[in-house]
Design brief:
Order of helices and strands: HHHHHHEEEEHEHEEEHEE
Largest sheet: 6 strands, mixed
Shape: globular
Helix content: 25-40%
CATH topology of the largest domain: Immunoglobulin-like
Structural class: alpha+beta
Radius of gyration: 18 Å
CATH architecture of the largest domain: Sandwich
Number of helices: 9
Number of strands: 10
Number of domains: 2
Length: 266
């Protein structure tokens, strides 16, 4: 589930080096969650008020606000190149129940860059809140509230253009949407939701496609509260698989509820 935008940030951090080498200000409890290797970089990337909130909440064994959790997850991803959930997951956390039909880590889990076709632990949480189940998927266009966003999925397609030819598996499925930030703070849909589908053979394709689209949400600026992001997510897969996709999901990636909603093009 490594996000594409992270790579350039990690390279930049490696070049400047010293920007991430000072004291983090994070408490031992927070440092134990994210790991000592990442703590200084993460602490330097966070606003002082966010560090203060995280320290206070973690020290009291409480739950940080949604904004603080998002900030922590983004900073960790920028500093390490991997999502915080994967770094702190325990063996055996992956279960397919919440996705409806089960799934495997078949061919899709090994192709291309890290994250292509991977199984996202959060998307497979059996305790996820189901907004729209797969057997009652929402027909497009459809609007749902997920992760503090009003998300309208306007279309989805099997892309046969140049981007598909450049993808690691030769096929591309593109999901287009418009989202309005209702979280109360500046946020970024790319980090707030996961997106994916399950192929007929049970292979799960999730989150990254390895190519840059003209309207790729990976490169859209974060939106303030009330602001809008418009663009597309994509999934790489063999062309024959992309041609058969009729449904897909969006799921909260950072909230405790992990709410998931299925959509269909039928």
């Amino acid at each position: 589930m490594v996000r594409r935008r992270v790579a350039s940030v990690v390279v930049a951090a490696a070049v400047v080096g010293s920007a991430c080498s000072g004291p983090s200000g994070l408490s031992p409890q927070v440092r134990s969650v994210i790991g000592e290797d990442a703590a200084d970089c993460v602490g330097a990337a966070l606003a002082p008020e966010t560090v203060e909130e995280l320290n206070a909440v973690f020290d009291d064994a409480g739950t940080p606000s949604l904004g603080a959790r998002r900030a922590l997850a983004r900073a960790y991803a920028d500093c390490t190149g991997e999502p915080l959930a994967e770094a702190t997951a325990e063996p055996g956390d992956v279960t397919p129940d919440a996705l409806g039909d089960g799934g495997s880590t078949g061919a899709g889990s090994t192709g291309g860059e890290p994250g292509v076709g991977s199984i996202g632990r959060d998307a497979l949480d059996p305790d996820a809140e189901v907004v729209a189940p797969r057997d009652a998927a929402l027909s497009l266009p459809a609007t749902v509230r997920l992760a503090g966003w009003d998300i309208t999925v306007t279309g989805a397609r099997n892309d046969r253009g140049d981007a598909a030819q450049r993808s690691s598996e030769g096929g591309l499925y593109v999901i287009t949407l418009r989202a309005v930030n209702r979280s109360g703070s500046t946020s970024d849909l790319f980090f707030d939701v996961d997106w994916g589908t399950i192929a007929a053979d049970g292979t799960i394709y999730e989150n990254t496609c390895g190519v840059a689209l003209d309207d790729d949400l990976a490169f859209v600026d974060a939106a303030p509260d009330g602001g809008t992001q418009v663009g597309s997510f994509c999934l790489t897969m063999p062309p024959s698989v992309a041609a058969d996709v009729t449904d897909f999901y969006l799921q909260e990636s950072l909230t405790p509820e992990q709410a998931i909603a299925w959509f269909t093009t039928n």
